[in-house]
Each structure stands twice: as C-alpha cells, then as structure tokens.
Design goal:
alpha/beta, binds N-carbamoyl-L-aspartate, 12 helices, 326 residues, four-stranded parallel sheet
C-alpha cells in the first residue's frame, strides 16, 4: 500500500442506502443528515492543499447535461475528480440527440460503456427518473424540469447548518419564481423534513396552484412574508421557462419582490441571504446585498456544492460496492 493510500481517511458508511438520488421527497431525516455529515468532512478536506483522494478510484462518472449549467456541472466534475474517479462530460449539443436519437437511446448507449454513476440534468420533469429505470448504473438527478434538484437542497442545508448550527425551528423564506423552480420543491421537502418553517413569497402568477399542500405558508406581499425570517432564499426569474408574460416588467418586479436593504430590514436582525445562482442582479436581488459577505451566503453555497456532491457520489458508490446494481 502506498503512502497516499494509507493516508486516506476512513469514511463512515452513510445511512443513505439507495441506488439513485432522484429527489429529496421521501428521504428520511436520517438519510439527509447522514449525507450532510459526510459532506461536512469533505468541506474540511477540500480546504487542504492536497485535495485528491482514492475513494472512487476505478469508477467512471458521466455528466449528461441536456440543459446548460455552470455551478452544478463543474462541481459534479470536480467532486468526481477529487474522489479519484474518471469523469466525462457528455456534450449533448455534439451528441446524436441532434440527429434524432431519443433520451432513452442515449442512456442505453452510455450504459453499455459501463459507467458507475450517471449525473443527469434534463428540461422535462420526470425524465431523469425514467432514464434511471433503463440503465444498470446509479443515477443522480442534477435538475429535472420544475420538479427536483436534490443536491442543491442538500448544499443549501449544509450551508445553513454550518452557519447557524441547525435547521430545526428556523424560519426560511423562499422568494421569487416559485412556479418554475425545482430548487424550491427540493428545498421544501428537505426543510420540512428537518423541521424548519417554510414560507413562499411570490406574485400570484409565479405560484403553482395548491403549493400549500406541501406544508408551506404562502405570501404575496414580501413585506409581510419576510417578518422574523432567519434565512431568505432568493430565486432567479426563469425567463427561459416563461411562455407568456408572468410579470409586468423587471423594474416593477424588483420594486415589489426584489431584495434590497429596506425589505431585508423586516427580517430578523441577523438574517442571512442565499441564492442558488445564476443571479439576475437588480431584478431579484440588489448587488450590494449579494456581494456583502456578512449577509450573503452565496459563495459558501458554491463551496458546499462540491462537498455535497462528493458525499452523494460516495454514498451511491458504497451501494455499488455492495453489488446492488447487478
Ligand atoms: C438552478 C437550477 O438550474 O435549477 N441553478 C443551479 O442549479 N444552481 C436555479 C436556476 O437556474 O435559476
């Protein structure tokens, strides 16, 4: 055994024992916290000069992104590389999909190359789950339509937990384009499962009907919704998903639903601000808040993203070790 192998930390087996990570809905508090605990260790290791490990040596990971992504794709790639796996980015634009190959054909073709984990982002809700039924490897949902984005909710939770020490009992407001937000759906499930109080703040046109059934309180007035909140998660207006006109103008939107100092003052005195990125500065959030490291956790969220994705890859890889995929 080489010195570097001997220096590898012993990683506890997380309580997460599923073959795929397709969503947060249905995960138990223990499954979620065990992934967060594992990610916590990776945060420290990622701050070392030598970040490379061999936990996933020999594994092949394919990033299959049908929608563009900066943070999610790059952090999955980095996460795989830091764990010693071979990672490949599948560029969908240059694939046979342009020649009429279907999503499932692509998945079956890639599956024949024996990847261990496929990381998939797709514009249609449910597409990643469908794909997971057609392959023999593990699948991670990196965002499907408006449905779920589980690793984003996990990284948000890790960011909050590291800063405030807990999730339980916190009042978390999620503001903006709830309608088109998979980040919101995953966060609602996670925050409710860990005992936070979730508020949604949005104009009526950006709220899906019946969302209260997920166990949230809905506000159409940001000034009311923010009162007494510990955490404010701002969302991007997802213009590319808007077929019609959902808001009168971005200027008017900022007036009512953009986060500025005046509205922030309505939340708890030490309230913290988050955003999954990419941000529309001056549309949903004022730059002076986004860039204020005393208030904004946005850079921490990006850092936690790599650690959480390392934890998810490790947990799924443990299942492969047990031969559950055969
Ligand atoms: C989010 C996404 O793609 O769902 N971004 C991300 O993963 N960091 C949110 C968004 O695109 O606005």
């Amino acid at each position: 055994m080489s010195v570097s192998e001997a220096a590898q930390p012993i990683i506890p087996t997380p309580a997460f024992s599923r073959r795929h990570l397709l969503g947060i809905e249905g995960l138990s508090p223990l499954e979620i916290t065990s992934l967060l605990d594992l990610a916590d260790d990776y945060v420290d290791q990622n701050r070392l000069i030598d970040k490379k490990q061999t936990t996933l040596r020999g594994r092949t990971i394919i990033n299959l992104f049908f929608e563009s992504s900066t943070r999610t794709q790059s952090s999955f790639e980095l996460a795989g590389k830091r764990l010693g796996a071979d990672t490949m980015n599948m560029s969908v634009k240059s694939s046979s999909l342009n020649k009429g190959e279907t999503l499932i054909d692509t998945a079956i073709t890639l599956n024949a190359m024996h990847p261990d984990i496929l990381i998939v982002r797709h514009q249609d809700s449910g597409a990643v789950e469908l794909l997971s039924q057609k392959v023999s490897c593990s699948v991670i949902n990196a965002g499907d339509g408006w449905h779920e984005h589980p690793t984003q909710a996990l990284l948000d939770a890790l960011t909050i937990r590291r800063r405030l020490g807990r999730i339980e009992g916190l009042k978390v407001a999620i503001c903006g384009d709830i309608m088109h937000s998979r980040v919101t759906r995953s966060n609602i499930h996670l925050l409710n499962t860990l005992g936070a109080e979730v508020r949604l703040i949005a104009p009526k046109t950006l709220l899906p009907a019946g969302i209260e059934r997920l166990g949230v309180t809905v506000f159409n007035d940001m000034r009311q919704g923010l009162v007494d909140c510990d955490i404010i998660m701002m969302l991007r207006l997802q213009m590319e998903r808007m077929a019609g006109s959902f808001i009168p103008s971005t200027r008017e939107y900022f007036h009512y639903f953009g986060l500025d100092r005046e509205k922030l003052a309505l939340a708890k005195p030490n309230a913290l601000v988050m955003h999954p990125g990419p941000m529309n500065r001056g549309v949903e959030i004022d730059s002076s808040i986004a860039d204020d490291r005393a208030i904004s956790l946005i850079q921490e969220q990006v850092e936690m993203g790599v650690a959480v994705r390392m934890a998810a890859l490790t947990a799924l890889s443990r299942q492969l070790d047990r031969g559950d995929h055969l």
